[in-house]
Amino acid sequence: MWYWLVKYVFIGPLLIALGRPTIEGAENIPTHGPVILASNHKAVLDSFYLPLKTPRRITFLAKSEYFTGPGLKGAFQKWFFTAVGQVPIDRTGADAAQDALDAGVRVIEAGKVLGIYPEGTRSPDARLYKGKTGMARLALQTGVQVIPVAMIGTEKMNPIGSRVWRPTKVTIRIGKPIDFSRFEGMAGNRFVERAVTDEVMYDLMLLSGQEYVDVYAASMKKDAPLADSAPAARRIPDSKAS
């Protein structure tokens, strides 16, 4: 119940007024059954606008820190992220990757829509960064299709470090589902998982119009003082998997 109240009553109307969001390709999301929505990630508001404009409920995997904060603020954060369908995962432990995979499998096996950001973190500069292979492993292990999603404009409304939302046009582009059944039984093969990931990132690049950078976004954030020597952007990954 809280999910729909947040979407349609508490926050949704404000987001609509500020972002005038439109969605293209919504018909590509199936009306029932499990699927993975793989989105680029420019701003925290991506996790607000995508559920706002899609008819089905989306479950995201979220860092556990959102659910463990102290005091009244921490309690509110825990309630809010639970209400909007976020599932906590611990990203710090030795088994963090497996825990995230297990959580994703549970969502998919329940027949739900799983939202994933393959880049692993927000883009530091609105470019599209190298995807991590956890999404591919989930898709290969469960056999579900992956639908690429491009969020456009959210980084202007909610720049990194900003505390105030700025009125900006937001567009959501939903791509065609990608079927990886040709790789059935190959989950765990790192070369196949990389090929699957790169294919999704290629489609994300085409949908979003972003420049592609063949390094992980987390590495760029860590090495921010070295930005002058950062790798140059490339328009496309080396190739689209066949």
UniProtKB/TrEMBL annotation:
Domain Phospholipid/glycerol acyltransferase: residue ranges: 35-154
Keyword RNA-binding listed: no
Ranges in a coiled coil: none
Record-level Gene Ontology MF annotations: acyltransferase activity
One Pfam family per UniProt: Acyltransferase
UniProt entry tagged with the keyword Acyltransferase: yes
UniProt keyword list: Acyltransferase, Transferase
PANTHER family: 1-ACYL-SN-GLYCEROL-3-PHOSPHATE ACYLTRANSFERASE
UniProt protein name: Lysophospholipid acyltransferase family protein
Organism of this sequence: Rhodococcoides yunnanense
